Structures are given as C-alpha cells and as structure tokens.
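Researcher: We plan to redesign the surface later, but first we want a full-length starting point. Tokens attached.
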C-alpha cells in the first residue's frame, strides 16, 4: 500500500502541522528556519544519478560534479551506458562512482513501475543495483517519488540535527534514530526535512534536504 505523497506546499504544511502537534520541539525548528523546503524533483535516472553524485561529498561539491556531468551529457541513461569509466571519471566521478553510474545505466530500471510500489518495495528494488544503498534509495523515494514516510536514518546530518534538537549527549546512530522516528509516522519525511533544516541553521552547513 502506498501512503501519502508530498506533491506540493499544501501537503508539506499538513505534515508540518501534524508533526508539531505530535512533537512540540519541532516548533522550535520552524521558529529557527521558517518554512521547510519542499525539495520535490522529477523521478527517473537523473534523480538517482544525482543521489550517487551526492554520496559522501558536500552539497557544493555535488553541485560542481553534477554541472560537469551535465556538460558532458552524462545525465541520460543511454549516454552513460555507452560511456567508459575513463570518460565518467574525466567528468568528475571517482572510480567507484563511475562504476556505480555504469551499473545504474545498464540496470534497465522501470521507473514508472516504481511509482506504484510501496515504500519498502521501492527501496528493495533500488538497493539491488550496485552502488545504490539504503540511503540513496530512501533519498530517491523521499524527493523523487514524494513519499511522506521515508526517513534515511543513516544520514549523518539528520543524526546530528536530532542530537541538537533533542539535546542528546551524543549523536544517535542509524538504529537509534530510526527508533526515534517511529513516533513521527506517517510523516517521517517531513521530520527529516525539519532536522536537515535545523542542522543547516545550527551548523551553517547544508545536508541533503537543507
């Protein structure tokens, strides 16, 4: 079963209102950051390439690499599938990410079918592709498919945002944060946006969803 989809500002506002009523500390986030970013974008190969590019690099670095990839014509599956590793590396990818990009381009994913699958099945289908881990799959489900209850608890900026907001003595690990987030169902993707935004303001740096 597919849950709520965040399509536009009204959906996000509904989730924010629910979340603040559930956990008042999220009201502190809104006071600090203002409106949360929607961050919806088109699904498909390009969205997953963006996620791969963004793995383990800063937002600024990812944007620079993406611009080089776009200039080289490597945001289309057919172009990447026909390329070799050297060409992809010349466009800014590491050796490892070049391999991931080739695997993705040649995986023949049915992106239209993903839109109709429940969250867990979307994530399972994506992590079957080399180079797409749970974080990447959850980011895709959240921002490309608009899934309202996907969280990406392995994200370090989310973990640090939770530590700051909830006054924790140490940053929660993925398992601990996923447990905390159970209280924020069915709007965990909104909670993620809030924690990323709070991290950005507190640290002066951006996470993926900031």
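Model: Full-length starting sequence:
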């Amino acid at each position: 079963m597919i849950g709520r989809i965040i399509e536009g500002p009204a959906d996000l506002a509904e989730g924010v209102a629910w979340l603040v009523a559930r956990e008042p500390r999220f009201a502190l986030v809104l006071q600090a950051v203002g409106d949360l970013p929607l961050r919806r974008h088109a699904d498909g190969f390009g969205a997953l390439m963006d996620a791969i590019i963004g793995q383990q690099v800063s937002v600024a670095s990812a944007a620079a690499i993406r611009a080089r990839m776009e200039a080289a014509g490597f945001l289309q599956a057919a172009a990447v599938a026909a390329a070799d590793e050297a060409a992809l590396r010349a466009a800014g990818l590491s050796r490892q990410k070049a391999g991931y990009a080739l695997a993705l381009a040649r995986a023949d994913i049915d992106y239209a079918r993903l839109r109709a699958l429940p969250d867990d099945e979307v994530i399972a289908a994506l992590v079957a592709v080399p180079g797409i881990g749970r974080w990447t799959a959850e980011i895709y489900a959240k921002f490309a498919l608009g899934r309202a209850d996907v969280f990406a608890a392995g994200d370090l900026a989310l973990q640090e945002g939770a530590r700051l907001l909830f006054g924790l003595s140490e940053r929660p690990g993925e398992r601990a944060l996923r447990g905390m987030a159970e209280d924020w169902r069915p709007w965990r993707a909104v909670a993620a946006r809030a924690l990323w935004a709070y991290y950005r303001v507190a640290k002066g740096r951006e996470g993926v969803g900031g």
